[in-house]
Amino acid sequence: MYGISSWAAELRCPIPARLCPHADAVQEWLVDWADRLVGPLDAAGRERFARGRVARYAGRLYPGASEADLRVIAALFTWFFLLDDACDAARRPRPAEVAALCDGVLRLLRAAPAPAPAAPAAPPTAAAAARQAQPGPPVGTGRPVPTTAGPGNPAVECVGRPSRAGHPTVPQPRPAQQPTAAPGQPRQTRQQPATAPQPRPGQQPSTPTPAARAANQPATRLTTPAQSRAANRPAPRSEAFDGPLRRMLADAWQVPSHRMPAAWRDRFVDAVAHHLDGVVTEATNKANGRLPGVAEYVPLRRATSAAYVSYALIEFATGQRVPDAVYHHPAVRAVADTANDLLSWFNDLLSLERDAATSGGHNLVLAVAREEGIPVEAAIEAVVRRWQQSMRHFVELRAAVPSFGPALDGPLRHYLDGLANSVRGTMDWSLESGRYRS
Question: DSSP characters for 338-369?
Fold first, then answer.
């Protein structure tokens, strides 16, 4: 009903396209990985995984990643899409079930890292063995557990369907409507920050005070490492999060949880928590028939896009650590927020037809049409203009980020490049992937 030809040509992206040279090899590996964790997959299931081209998405966002690291990221991306499909499958999902599922995810991520993974127990296929002879070990143990497709196995059933997530989320301002807390887990009280001092050229930023740090952080991020570690303490296993989805996340999380420092793990888990808060909020809205206005929808969409999780993975892929004082600096945060808007709104335009039937009004085009009382076709034009203006703003914001000194400007440059790649990579992958073709 709403073809892309009417607007796609108007969304001119000045960011150059990039693609990791390992993307296609990792895509082949990814299908075998899913087969081990979910499978055995039948021919149709393997085809659905292949058509999604998730490894190419990861390769567009992290073009400099090693093959081993791209495997980890592609596995995490696949898991995020499957979780999103599972939560978004029903027009009116049950918020309590979605919240329980999200709670189980956080319990797994907050648990102490498991022992380092051993070699896979199951023998790989001939093609997989040839690839494993090259650098890049499998993500984790990947033991096969036979399952069949159906409502209880979203990892098989939902692959290849369009997703609300334009993209697999570091923490951001909490959505306008307070998301529902996970069952049995009290919401953390987070400070609302004052502004960090502007760095002088050549000077490294000093460690901010708690108040200054809080001012530069999203409401969902704990304000100190000690607080974050306390909130991310191990928790009992959740029965609501089990089966293929749990096995896939546990396997994909092994390498980052062992290799990355505690501060990074806290940042990643906080980002996932913010994303899941948005997922629960959207499920609650849909269950209650609530149609968000534009001002409410934009920050909520920043959460449901999961873009901030992918931003945390930039450091995993590049090995370049960005300190909190820089990561949460207002100038850097503005670039990250605008990049999130660009990729999220592009996804809303692309998935409009499906969202009109299933999203319960959670689409920027639908929100604009409803709020301004205009036809959907006119709302598409309004969102395209909004996107064009935001792209110009993104270019200006990126150029205006100040220097933090020689020691930090290199890692920051990698991070800003990663934000740009997230926009262009999402656009290019969305048009080539089978996820968005009926």
Answer: HHHHHHHHHHHHHTHHHHHHHSTT-SHHHHHH
Amino acid occupying residue 37: L
Cα 246 to Cα 218: distance, rounded to the nearest angstrom: 28
**pTM given for the model:** 0.74
CB-CB contact of 162 with 434 (8 Å): no
Q: Around Cβ 139, how many Cβ atoms within 10 Å?
A: 27
Give yes or no for a contact between 270 and 171, defined as CB atoms under 8 angstroms apart.
yes
In sequence order, the 6+-apart residues with CB closer than 8 A to the CB of 124 are: 32, 132
Structural element, H or E, at residue 392: helix 376-399
Report how far residue 211's alpha carbon sits from residue 207's, in angstroms, rounded to the nearest whole number.
11
Give CA angle at 308 (407, 160), nearest 5°.
130
C-alpha of 242 from chain center: 21
Show the tokens assigned to 211: 């108040």
The C-alpha atoms of residue 298 and residue 292 are separated, in whole angstroms, by 9
What does the pLDDT look like over 28-87, one tens digit per residue? 999 999 989 987 888 888 888 888 899 999 999 999 999 999 999 999 999 999 888 877
For 241-253, what is each residue's pLDDT tens digit? 788 899 999 999 9
143 touches 36 (CB < 8 A): yes
d(CA 166, CA 412): 24
Domains and CATH numbers, the chain: 4-196+206-436 (1.10.600.10)
Closest CA to 38 of 246, 213, 233, 180: 246
- Using the Cα atoms of residue 324, residue 326, residue 331 and residue 334 in order, give the sign of their dihedral: negative
Q: Under DSSP, is residue 211 helix (H, G, I), strand (E, B) or coil? A: helix
Distance CA(313)–CA(75), nearest Å, equals 12
